[in-house]
Structures are given as structure tokens and as C-alpha cells.
From TrEMBL:
Its EC number is 2.6.1.42. One of its GO terms (molecular function) is D-alanine-2-oxoglutarate aminotransferase activity. This is branched-chain-amino-acid transaminase. CDD domains: D-AAT_like (cd01558).
Amino acid sequence: MTRTVYINGQYMAETDAKVSIFDRGFLFADAVYEVTAVLEGKLIDNAGHIARLTRSCQELGIPMPISAEELTEIQRSLIEKNQLHEGGVYLQLTRGSEGDRDFSYSEDIKPTLVLFTQARELIHSPVAKKGIKVLSMDDIRWRRRDIKTTSLLPACMAKHIAHQAGCDDVWLIEQGYVTEGGSSNAYIVTDEGKIITRPLSNDILSGITRASLMLLAKDCGLVIEERAFTIEEAYQATEAFVSSATTFIWPVTHIDDHEIGDGKPGPIAAKLREIYIKTSLEMAE
Ligand code: PDD
């Protein structure tokens, strides 16, 4: 089926949507993006995603071409036009094009806005039951990982190496400490049942799923400690898991050559996933 996509004020068939070869998103990855999950045709945690987009734009000086309300309107229209039941809406905003390649840019350059839907099984994803194997790797990304830019080559390369090694994803390591997953936030559970995750800073993306998860965990009496943890501590953890808009919560059963806990998906990750999905469905817009 040919999708209907949105580009700079227009809805059109995906095959007709074109962006200039001089677009700075294409030439310099001078662009920000967001992925909002969709369940039962409704947006999940979208206010958080739009707020983070606004912040990413502010940090880079990319003007938001339309309001948050208008963006949400487009997201909803695309869901409807493509009859999306479950999956996500991808949104990308680039600084735009000035008709040539030039490192510098003017202030009044007009941004390029693109949105499209992606059908994906989220609730009954087999991976959520089975868990994932991750490979640890040096985090070679830039120092502003709090901004959600499309400079994703390090993540693509790391994931590719992990796939070649028979793993599902990566956990990135800086100075011995886990920063985050290739496209997710990372968590471990200690012997006492405490959830550990790295505190927010420029070192990691401030996950929208992470924010919701932390509130839900507290509500059901789970203790979360925000501190950096080493990869060795992760090897010894009782459980490990990741969170993102494309996975919600997925258990991690193996890290490098180590089985986590008994090598099976753990109960805390399963419980959090269940509560997250239930609450998200209740609050979906
Ligand atoms: N990635 N950390 C990184 C590096 C990410 O790329 C993502 C999300 C997250 C989780 O953020 P959130 O919970 O807001 O999705 C953490 C998206 C899903 C992607 O690149 O497709």
C-alpha cells in the first residue's frame, strides 16, 4: 500500500514526496526528529515528544514552522489517512535548504518538515516476550546526545556490528559506564529489586518513555535510583531492560557473553511493560 505522507504543508503519496539535494538535513544531518508510538490509532505520550522536539529546535536554533497543535493535527490526519492501528508516526524537521552546500546558514532559512506513519507490532511483539541480546560497544557519538538529531550513523554502525555478531542491539559504554542503548534508555535491576538508570544529562537522550516509566514505577512502589552503572554491574544484574517509543519496554536477557539473571525475561520488566501499555491506552490521544 502506498502511504500518504506529509511534506511542507502538503499531503501526498510517498512516491511523490521530494526533498532538495541541498537540504541541510541531507547534507549535514542538520535536523531533529521524533517518533511517537500509536496504539489503537491513538498517539502515545505525544505531548512529551512535541515538548522534546521544541527543546531540540531551541538548542539548535531551528524555528518550529507550525504550532504544537498543528503538528498534532498532522499526526492525527496521517494516522487516519493511512488507517494506522498500531506503530508510529515519524516526524523530521530539518533546517532547510538555501540552494547550495555551505556550512554556514542564514537565520531566515525555511525549515523542511516531513512526517510519515510506520505500521509496527508493538503490543504483541514477539521480542517483548523473548527479550533481546545486547552487545556492549564504545559510545563514539557527539557530546549533545540530549538533542534528538538525525546524526544517527554511530547508532546505525553499532547496531549493524551487533546484528553481525548475532545480537539484537547495543549498549553504549563511556569510560566503563553504560550511557544508553542504540535507540533506547538502559536499565538494570539489583538484587534488592532496585531499578538503576543513568541520570539525565547531555550524555543521553531524555526518553519520553523513560519519564512515564519512572512515574509508573514509583506509583507501584518500585524504587528507581538515577545513577550511572558500569557494564560489569550490568553483567551481575538480576534483570536488565530498555525503553523507547518503538519498543515500550523490552527485557534484556544477555549482555555480551553474560546471561542476565537466569537468562530469561525478568518479572519487573514484564510488570512495567504491562502497566505502561495499560496506562498508555487509557491516556492515548
Ligand atoms: N529512539 N535514547 C536514544 C539514543 C534513542 O534514540 C531513543 C529513542 C531513546 C528513547 O526515547 P523515547 O522513549 O523518547 O523514544 C533513548 C527512537 C525510538 C528512534 O530513534 O527510533
